[in-house]
Write a structure and sequence with these properties.
single chain, alpha/beta, Nucleotidyltransferase, domain 5, 2 domains, 12 helices, 14 strands, disordered N terminus, binds 5'-O-[(R)-(carboxyoxy)(hydroxy)phosphoryl]adenosine, binds zinc ion
């Protein structure tokens, strides 16, 4: 967890200039801070502006965001196409691509914002969790900028950033429940404050996005004309629309385990076994696309959606029983790359309707890794 986090009073961020970190100010400091501004007409109000840099996995992203949450500029370079060709993320390849793109991406975000590095209030960068080689590129680039422009540095926890992104687009009060589902993560947590999280459940093995990516690879979906440039999860969602989930019966994982944890490895293996059996039946070689690929995509997506929805339902009831969440105004925030899946969102909607919760998802571009959430 980052030790120093931005402190907000309404929409105002307070910077502790001597320590070069954002910190909780005393009341007298707030009033002194407010007095230091000249609000007379014609005088430009100096907003605090933060540059955010994200390189934890396979996206090189940067954004400039002001203290009221306005996105002034953003840029992103996705490595998905390269990793699709190599059949998954190869960390040294990801590192090299981050190195090749980071300067351009940060420059693009700054140019779009019209802010020069000297006018930034701070530089925020993902420090964990993620691929060490990828994180290292963002960190050393940020270190360079911080030293060159003498700016404060804000270390960011990638999962906290995903969890709090919703507060850019919606007015969400603490506490709320968050479900983070991506290629690298799967967790359910009660968010009690900016850096106060209570973990309720996590995946015991792989994340749902990872499972989708592996199944999509085993189905050779990059060879499917409609899915060649899509991530595994996106390809599964796309194909599932054309399939019939009832053609395959895959039972949901952990249905006898009464907690909020998840598991996706079993689902991956069961699906792979069905693929091998179908390949034999259809007389096709591994590496060719099965005629039943869409039905399988629909079945695996449905089973994953049911599993995610059931665990989330249990977490909501658990929190409501303990009055950690309101019985009538509870909020469930769903984020991460897999949250852009509309079938999974629909399953979660059924759960939130049944528990009088409000379901909130950031727009798809803010669900996947991005620089805005870091800034
Ligand atoms: O959050 P993200 O951009 O990166 C991290 O993993 O942190 O999520 C990427 C993951 C990939 O595994 C991708 O297959 C999955 O999200 N994904 C989806 C969809 N779009 C992306 N999974 C299911 N349905 C989608 N539409
Ligand atoms: Zn992420």
């Amino acid at each position: 967890m980052p030790k120093e986090l931005p402190f907000r009073i309404g929409s105002m961020l307070i910077l502790n200039k001597t320590a070069r970190v954002f910190s909780k100010p005393s009341k007298s400091k707030i009033y002194a801070f407010l007095r230091s501004f000249n609000f007379s007409p014609g005088t430009r109000f100096l907003h605090k502006v933060v540059l955010g840099i994200e390189t934890s996995c396979d996206d090189t992203a940067a954004a400039v965001v002001d203290e009221t949450g306005n996105v002034l500029g953003e840029a992103i370079h996705s490595q998905t196409e390269v990793h699709l060709k190599t059949g998954g993320i190869v960390p040294p390849v990801a590192q090299q691509l981050h190195r090749e793109n980071i300067e351009r991406i940060v420059q693009e975000a700054l140019s779009a914002s019209g802010i020069s590095p000297g006018d930034l209030s701070a530089i925020a960068t993902t420090i964990k969790p993620g691929l060490a080689l990828s994180l290292g590129v963002g960190l050393s680039f940020s270190k360079q900028l911080v030293n060159q422009w003498k700016k404060p540095f804000i270390p960011i926890h990638h999962m906290e950033a995903h969890a709090l992104t919703i507060r850019l687009t919606n007015q969400v009060e603490f506490p709320f429940l968050v479900l983070l589902i991506s290629g690298g993560h799967c967790l359910l947590a009660l968010v009690r404050g900016v850096s106060d999280f209570l973990l309720l459940g996590k995946s015991l093995d792989i994340a749902p996005g990872d499972m989708f990516d592996k199944v999509a690879r085993r189905l050779s979906l990059t060879k499917h004309p409609e899915c060649s440039s899509m991530s595994g999860g996106k390809a599964i969602e796309h194909l599932a629309k054309q399939g019939n989930r009832f053609h395959f019966d895959i039972s949901p994982p952990m249905h006898r385990v009464k907690n909020c944890d998840f598991s996706f490895t079993g689902l991956q293996h069961v699906t792979e076994k069905i693929i091998t059996k179908k390949e034999k039946e259809e007389g096709i070689e591994k590496g060719q696309v099965l005629s039943s690929a869409a039905d399988l995509a629909a079945a695996v997506q449905h089973t994953a959606a049911c599993h995610i929805a059931k665990r989330t339902h249990r977490a909501i009831l658990f929190c409501q029983q303990r009055q950690w969440l309101s019985q009538s105004h509870a909020v469930l925030v769903v984020s991460g790359g897999v949250a852009s899946n509309f079938y999974i969102r629909r399953a979660l909607e059924i759960v939130t309707d049944a528990t009088q919760c409000t379901l909130l998802c950031p727009p798809p571009r803010l669900c996947t890794d991005n620089g805005v959430m870091i800034a």
